Amino acid sequence: MLDGRSQVRRKVGLRLWLSGGWLLLLVLAALFAPLLSPHNPLEQDLFLGRMPPFWEQGAEPGFYLGTDSLGRDVLARILYGARIALIVALVAGGLTGLIGSTLGLLAGYLRGWVDVVISRLIDIWMAFPPILFSILLIAVLGPGLLSIIIAIVVIDWTRFARVIRAEAMAQGAMDYSASARVAGRRRLSTMVIEILPNVLPTIVVLLTLEMGIAVIVEAILSFVNLSISTDDPTWGGMISEGRASIHQAWWVMVFPLVTLFLTVLSFSQLGEGLKDRFDPVLR
Amino acid sequence: MSYLKISNLDVRLAGTPMRLLRDVSLTVKSGEVHGLVGESGAGKSMIGKAVLGILPRATEIVGGSIELDGVDLLALSPREHRYRLGQSCALIPQDPLTALNPSRRIAPQITDRLTNILGWEAKRARDRAIELLDEVHIPDPERVMRSYPHELSGGMRQRILIASAFAAEPKLIVADEPTTALDVTVQKQILKLIKEMQQRHDTALLFVTHDLGVVSKICQSLSVLYAGKVVESTDVRSFFDEPAHAYSRALLAATPKYTDPEASLMPVPEAVIAAVKAEVEAADKSWKHD
Question: How far is C-alpha B21 from the geometric centre of its chain's CA atoms?
Answer without folding.
Answer: 15
